[in-house]
Specification:
Distance between the termini: 52 Å
Number of domains: 1
Structural class: alpha/beta
Strand content: 15-25%
Number of strands: 7
CATH topology: Glutaredoxin
Radius of gyration: 15 Å
Strand order of the largest sheet: 2-1-5-4-3-6-7
Order of helices and strands: HEEHEHEHEHEEH
Low-confidence stretches: 1-17
Largest sheet: 7 strands, mixed
């Protein structure tokens, strides 16, 4: 229990509220990712060509909060897919660690990508300011045109899935109304 409290306090102390603004163009990237334990090259542009992308950044694989968040996204993948979206998580962990995380915590349902250099994390304003070795917990919904339509920043992992799913539903409904 002490470790959970210490971990929580450690990350809360490093929280930052920076994020890309709604309407901004999301930086394109290609990165090593793992899905169901298999490593491959993930391309944001290729994923956006198929539909919206829910991109979330997380601090550390196998920590309580990141495992909880991954389980939550895994349970909701079908809901995201029903709205035409895909999900990917990004952290500064090694691809070897994330390969295991993709099986155990993501339940083989969506990819997680390794940004050990923090180049992508920084380009999305997702670097934890007080703890620059870690990504902040930020979730984005990115439209197929590459524009950010929603972002949510909170180190608390409990609401990221709910909030991104609601934002995605709203975006889809508005897109349908404006046809």
């Amino acid at each position: 229990m002490f470790r959970v409290i210490a971990y929580t306090l450690f990350f809360l102390a490093g929280a930052a509220q920076a994020a890309l603004d709604i309407g901004e163009k999301a930086p394109d990237f290609t990165i090593d990712a793992a899905l169901a334990g298999k490593v491959y090259k993930y391309s944001l542009a290729e994923s956006l060509a198929k539909g919206p992308v829910v991109l979330y950044f997380f601090p550390a694989a196998f920590s309580w909060g990141c495992s909880y968040e991954a389980h939550s996204f895994a349970q909701a993948v079908k809901d995201f897919e029903a709205l035409g979206a895909s999900v990917i998580g990004v952290s500064g962990d090694s691809i070897e660690t994330l390969s295991k995380f993709s099986v155990q915590e993501c339940q083989n349902k969506f990819p997680v990508a390794s940004d050990e250099t923090k180049v992508i994390i920084k380009s999305f304003d997702a670097l934890m300011q007080a703890r620059p070795d870690y990504a902040n917990r930020i979730s984005y919904v990115i439209a197929p045109n590459g524009r950010v339509v929603y972002q949510y920043t909170s180190l608390n992992p409990l609401k990221h899935v709910e909030k991104t799913l609601t934002a995605l539903r709203t975006w889809v409904e508005n897109k349908e109304k404006n046809k």
